[in-house]
Specification:
- It is a single chain.
- By secondary structure, the chain is an alpha+beta fold.
- Helices cover 31% and strands 17% of the residues.
- Strands 2, 5, 6, 7, 10 and 11 form a six-stranded mixed β-sheet that branches. Strands 13-12-20-19-18 form a five-stranded antiparallel β-sheet, sandwiched between helices. The chain has a three-stranded antiparallel β-sheet with strand order 1-9-8.
- Helix 8 runs parallel beside helix 13.
- The longest helix is centred in the N-terminal third of the chain and has 20 residues.
Length: 620
């Protein structure tokens, strides 16, 4: 019995010694003095304001993002694209995206902004003890004007033409060696809030015992080859979402980032840890500073356009009033295209006479309109003209006078004379069987306006002839307050704005831009400014424009007020926009709409102390 007890005691001692020699676990269930390497980060948003279907689109995008998290295999060095990998380059209705007052799919950037907040805030402890970001931003289009997203707003926008595409691109930090991040989201439609939670791990400190390293070796050996396996708490999955490919990055994977970065301000941004040691990633970022005094607009071009669209739509309501605002080139970064009733054909009044001046300059030999500066086109006597220009003035004074008085004084006979002059003094005679048809064909083919817009006739000046008719127009009727109306000469706001887009682009290429903007930037008198001239110039915005007005007593208005105004705007930084406003029996909406546009393009905080009334300058 004594020997049996001694044998059992010896065996117990050997067993205890063996157990003591095993490495201790570093898991959360281990001894209290062994710190856990598991870490959790959770962030979210509570929506401060909503509009119709904003949350529907946001939830749909979050659901797609969750599906991505469930299927992705994180790979070092791979760039993950929100447009490509999350929404598959398509905001499809069968996924759940719907229309909103701002446009189809708006609100979906709630998902990219939520992801951006996680990327910007989730930190891990590296083996040297420094805090570093788990993910790194590669490219972002952001803004600071949304009260819900705060400084984490990240725009996504899919442009089929690829011009205005906005993507969010990120990668896993190459320094991260912990277990693959597991991410889950929760969208609460009732409480109007969303959150995202990520489980990941710190690295053991380099000075830790070898037992801790052994315990975590299996978990960190292949961090880039294990799926996340996250669970979803969103309410539904997209109908045809597909798994994200895990192949090596292709050129297409970063094409959007490269394209956007060439237009954006590129900053070498570092993500500093708590001890000041930065990550080494470089970020292509298009952002608006947090201080609104440092920027013209606190919103992105897309958001600013959406905001103005809402305001104009609320202002216009059911009135027959249209607005078109078209950015020229990179001006879309300030505000993208805006259109409210912009394709609605209506009475153009005299606003088309700006197009007549451009028509003249584009098609008549430059020796005619360069012979005398615009300032002297209305001189009454050659003694009022400097000697160097008298020969040209005497030769071309009649047509130059007609061009000036048509564009500035809106004289009807002068307008007819100019249209006829171009027809009889240029190849435009081969562009139609009469002066009116030739003008319309030029506007369609060269300026790019739609076939719906044009003049039927202009029975003034030298176009007052029975054959000077374009029978394509004056045929379409609309009913207003129970009355059938058939306008003779009609344009849509978008087509009228396209005339000035043509001036800003082709006009510069063809060498008449400076003369045209000088002419169309001339006010009728010191106190005779049009609405565009008055409101935009007060804000320091230069204008080249032509307005039109017909009262109810005119035979051309069918008993209603018609107010139109269109032109080219140049902001103090050189950015340009083509605009058009067309109001039919709409009270003072023209004033209000122009004032709204001015504040959107150049907020009060950036208005100059004093604004001149000069013509458009040459943009940068």
């Amino acid at each position: 019995m004594r020997h049996r007890f001694s044998f059992i005691l010896a065996a117990g001692i050997i067993l205890l010694a063996g157990l003591a020699s095993l490495p201790r676990s570093a898991s959360a269930d281990g001894p209290s003095n062994a710190p856990s390497l598991t870490r959790t980060a959770s962030v979210g948003f509570v929506y401060v304001s909503t509009y119709k279907n904003r949350l529907v689109n946001a939830q749909t995008a979050v659901v797609q993002m969750q599906h991505f998290f469930e299927t992705v295999t994180w790979e070092r060095g791979r760039h993950y694209s929100f447009l490509r990998d999350v929404v598959h380059n398509d905001f499809r209705p069968d996924y759940g995206y719907v229309n909103t007052p701002l446009g189809f799919g708006f609100g979906s950037c709630g998902a990219s902004s939520l992801l951006n907040k996680l990327v910007q805030t989730a930190m891990f402890r590296d083996s040297d003890g420094t805090e570093k970001h788990v993910f790194q931003t590669i490219m972002i289009w952001t803004w600071r004007g949304d009260k819900t997203y705060g400084k984490y707003g990240a725009t996504i926008f899919l442009d089929p033409a690829g011009v205005h595409t906005r993507d969010y691109i990120w990668q896993i930090n190459p320094a991260y060696d912990g277990p693959p991040p597991k991410i889950m989201t929760n969208f609460d439609m009732v409480a109007e809030k969303v959150d995202i939670t990520m489980e990941y791990g710190d690295e053991p400190l380099a000075s830790s015992a070898e037992s801790t390293a052994a315990a975590t070796q299996a978990a960190t050996k292949s961090a880039t080859q294990v799926p996340t396996g996250a669970t979803v708490q969103a309410t539904k999955s997209p109908a045809k979402a597909t798994a994200v490919a895990t192949a090596a990055p292709t050129r297409a994977a970063t094409a959007i980032a490269t394209q956007a970065a060439t237009k954006a301000a590129t900053n070498k941004q570092t993500n500093d840890g708590s001890n000041g040691q930065p990550d080494s990633t470089k970020v292509a970022i298009k952002t608006m500073p947090e201080d609104p005094s440092d920027t013209y607009l606190p919103l992105s071009g897309a958001q600013n356009a959406a905001d103005l669209t809402i305001r104009l739509t609320s202002l216009i309501k059911g009135n027959r009033f249209g607005v078109s605002v078209i950015p020229i080139g990179d001006a879309s970064q300030i505000m993208e295209e805006v259109g409210v009733n912009q394709n609605m054909e209506t009475y153009v009044a005299s606003a088309f006479k700006g197009a007549v001046a451009i028509y003249f300059l584009e098609n008549i030999d430059a020796s005619v309109w360069r012979s005398v500066p615009v300032l002297y086109w209305t001189a009454k006597d050659e003694k009022d003209v400097p000697a160097d220009y008298r020969k040209g003035w005497n030769q071309y004074k009649d047509i130059l006078y007609n061009v000036w008085t048509s564009a500035i004084y809106s004289e009807n006979d002068s307008t007819g004379n100019v249209i006829d002059y171009v027809y009889t003094h240029s190849y435009m005679s081969k562009y139609g069987d009469n002066p009116i048809t030739a003008f319309n064909n030029w506007a369609h083919d060269s300026a790019g306006i739609s076939l719906d817009s044009g003049l039927r006739s202009w029975f003034d000046g030298k176009t007052n002839c029975l054959t000077c008719i374009d029978k394509r127009y004056g045929q379409k009727a609309f009913v207003y307050m129970g009355k059938v109306l058939i306008p003779n000469n009609t344009f849509s706001p978008h087509d009228l704005a396209l005339i000035y887009y043509h001036l800003a682009t082709k006009g510069r290429d063809r060498g008449y831009y400076d003369v045209a903007t000088n002419l169309l930037g001339t006010p009728r008198s010191e106190n005779g400014l049009s609405m565009i001239q008055y409101y935009f110039r007060k804000r320091g915005i230069q204008t080249a424009s032509k307005d039109g007005f017909v009262g109810p007593d005119s035979a051309d208005s069918d008993g209603y007020y018609v107010s139109t105004d269109a032109g080219l705007l140049t902001l103090p930084d050189g950015s340009q926009f083509a605009v058009a406003y067309m109001a039919f029996d709409s009270g003072n909406l023209l004033d209000d709409a122009i004032l709204m546009t001015g504040k959107a393009l150049l907020p009060d905080i950036k208005m100059p102390v004093s604004a001149g009334t000069g013509s458009v300058g040459t943009p940068k």
